[in-house]
Design brief:
heterodimer, A: about 375 residues, mainly alpha, A middle domain of Talin 1, globular, B: about 325 residues, binds zinc ion
Chain lengths: ~375, ~325
């Protein structure tokens, strides 16, 4: 027996001499390439697209006041920039796990706090100081949604023509978004070098911050805010259909679809030309060679498949989102179930596959 | 299964068991061995031992005994058991925790806690240690009280000399039971706390090395299986199990049977009436007494419980 054990030790020592081959996790170089690509090709790009569309929205709001743009044109600009926001906001992380400049300046508060507070909006329009630094429920896209879509087009046009202050307020809240978002865009330009350089794999590394951020974002902003909360999942079944995104313009399903698609594109590392990259979360996951629990397939592929299934379910939702919420329509319950599948894989398997520090350790005797 | 896979499993298993000394989650981590040595030095000084400290620690009869080689064999063998039968299922603990949080959220609605995260962290850390410790005691207690389980636990008690590796001398069946217990407790406590804290306890705080557990590791849990009789103050031993109290647990003196089954805390033994404090007990000898000879080989330890089972079934 002694000889067997000594033999085993010898084999082990020798096998380790030829270098460590068991390192499945991605290397520092790969994390670095990932960060460089994600920040430069995806994040910065999304910022500039969004800012451009915000400026167009601002111009349109001025043209609308001067009679140069119709309400219809303004609405289109609004929807366009809102859609671009859905693709950008992922790069802030969730409220408790923000990364980069969003740590100090969480744009979500100024751009997409919903439901908006209609009474407070009307109050603010008549006041001299809007207090946009603290009153999050009177600004951002949800407030514009109310201003432009509350009633028929002629009713809305009439509201604007009766009270010129309405134009000023609309322009002020668009300006506020431009200010907040530009601040972060500049800040990213100044700090991205350090952020990318921090490519260690541990909890303090930039990759881990992004992974934590987008996970909470998915749970909080996509699953909960856009669907599960109004559907009553977190409130013992009491539904809150009036708390949906775009209550007035009724574009909730499209916004949900775009936001989710943004997440899928992030996973695949799709750039503005729609080309995927291996410097993506999926790429890193493939390198780990980890298989999904209870499956012979790679976790990277299983996760992508679940994302696609979910996207399909979202795109299959038919009808008015408010009414579907009220009736707890089964198509929404199905999307919720698909969200759950993704979150479970993301939080339990993707995390453990990519982070050494997060593997639960086995026990022995006492 | 092809050759490459077999090679991978062998490599992973050996890496696992030999990697313990570099893994801060394990008792035999170099750092804890160092702190244990300091404690041993303290015992050496206070007990006025008449040999050099090196000889005191490096006792050939302990480290090269037949019993010790069975310990070493179990470390290696259980490395394989872990890689094949335990490792792939560890994620079930996270699954369990997740489903529990989800179940509580859907059933009772979201729990809005006003408490700052740091409080939850403290409560969680305390609870996980206390609950894990209670279940460790309970499972150990049952292993001593239920004949079928005792057969498997005998492997651990058949050690006739104790060294730090003896803690890994466990029958694979006991190893699997212990891991199932840990996963279950982890899932219950983490799931509940993630729910109560409204998600403010993140994965890092839930899985990271538990500070309290660390204290036990640093303060000589290695000496539980050793020749170093580290005792605590008589009153302290009502609350915490000292290394010597666990050595009493291994004693082959019938007066010491089924005593001190706790892991960290002594309160469970106290409550169940199975606590023995160190006092003055003279020199202890270890093992299974009369039955010992059947357990003097690695294979004997491995198959005895199954032979017992077969006999039991035939007698009926
Ligand atoms: Zn025992
Ligand atoms: Zn023991």
């Amino acid at each position: 027996m002694r000889n067997i054990i000594l033999g085993l030790i010898a084999v082990f020592v020798l096998s380790n001499c030829k270098g460590d081959t068991s390192n499945d996790k991605a290397s520092i170089v790969e994390y670095n390439e990932y960060l460089e690509y994600t920040i430069n090709e995806l994040l910065i790009e999304n910022y500039s697209v969004f800012i451009e569309s915000l400026v167009e929205l601002k111009d349109s709001s001025i043209a609308f006041e001067n009679g140069g743009h119709s309400l219809e044109e303004l609405k289109q600009k609004y929807l366009n920039s809102y859609k671009n926001w859905q693709k950008l906001c992922l790069y802030e992380g969730g409220s408790g796990s923000r990364f980069g400049p969003s740590l100090d300046n969480y744009m979500q508060k100024y751009a997409n706090t919903y439901p908006c507070n209609v009474e407070k909006i009307e109050e603010a329009i008549l006041s001299d100081d809007y207090e946009l630094d603290v009153k999050y429920t009177i600004q951002g896209f949800p407030a514009i949604d109310y201003l432009l879509f509350n009633g028929t087009s002629s009713e809305v046009e009439n509201d604007f023509s009766v009270e010129n202050k309405r134009h000023l307020f609309l322009q002020a809240i668009i300006d506020k978004m431009i200010v907040q978002v530009s601040e972060n865009a500049t800040s990213w330009e100044n700090t991205k070098k350090d952020f990318i350089a921090n490519s260690q794999s541990g909890t303090n590394g930039s990759f881990s911050k992004i992974l934590n951020g987008i996970t909470e974002y998915y749970e909080q902003q996509i699953r909960k805010a856009k669907l599960a909360y109004p559907l009553g999942v977190f409130t013992q079944g009491t539904v809150y259909p009036a708390d949906i995104e775009t209550l007035y313009s009724e574009n909730s399903i499209e916004m949900l679809s775009i936001a989710h698609k943004g997440f899928v594109d992030f996973y695949l590392g799709k750039n503005k030309d729609g080309v995927s990259s291996d410097k993506s979360l999926k790429g890193l996951l493939i390198k780990t060679e980890v298989k999904a629990f209870d499956s012979d397939d790679l976790l990277a592929d299983v996760f992508e498949e679940k994302l696609n299934i979910c996207q399909e379910k979202i795109d299959n939702i038919q009808g008015d989102y408010f009414t579907l919420m009220e009736n707890k329509d089964s198509s929404l319950e199905e999307v919720y179930a698909a969200f759950q599948d993704i979150i479970i894989l993301l939080k339990l398997e993707v995390f453990t596959a990519l982070d050494d520090e997060l593997s639960y350790s086995d026990s022995d005797g006492d | 299964m092809d050759f490459e896979n077999i090679y991978k499993i062998i490599e992973e298993s050996l890496n696992l068991s030999f990697g313990y000394i570099l893994n801060p989650n394990k008792r035999v981590y170099l750092g804890y061995i160092f702190t244990s040595l300091l404690l041993a030095l303290y015992v050496y000084k206070t007990n006025k031992v008449h040999k050099t400290f090196f000889k005191y620690i490096y006792n050939k009869q302990v480290w090269f005994s037949k019993s010790a080689f069975i310990d070493y064999s179990f470390v290696v063998f259980n490395g394989f058991v872990k890689v094949i039968f335990i490792g792939p299922y560890l994620i079930l603990g996270l699954y369990g925790a997740y489903y529990l949080t989800d179940y509580l959220t859907v059933t009772f609605g979201e729990f809005n806690s006003e408490l700052p995260k740091v409080y939850w962290l403290v409560f969680y850390t305390l609870s996980v240690v206390v609950v894990q410790d209670f279940f460790s005691f309970l499972v150990h207690y049952l292993m001593h009280k239920i004949p079928f389980m005792w057969e498997f636990h005998k492997t651990h008690h058949s050690a006739t000399s104790l060294n730090i590796v003896t803690q890994y001398r466990l029958h694979p069946v006991e190893l699997i039971i212990n891991n199932s217990k840990s996963l279950m407790v982890f899932a219950l406590v983490s799931g509940l706390f993630v729910y109560l804290s409204g998600g403010s306890l993140d994965k890092i705080s839930v899985i990271g090395v538990n500070v309290l557990h660390l204290v036990f590791l640093v303060f000589g849990s290695n000496l539980r299986h050793s020749q170093v009789p580290l005792k605590y103050n008589n009153k302290v031993e009502l609350l915490f199990i000292s290394p010597f109290q666990h050595q009493i647990h291994h004693s082959d003196n019938p007066e010491h049977f089924d005593k001190n089954m706790g892991s960290k805390l002594a309160i469970w033994d106290w409550m169940f009436g199975t606590l023995l404090r160190s006092g003055n007990r003279g020199k202890l000898t270890y093992g299974l007494g009369e039955e010992q000879k059947k357990y003097n080989s690695f294979v004997g330890n491995l198959i005895q419980p199954f032979l017992w089972l077969v006999l039991k079934i035939f007698k009926k």
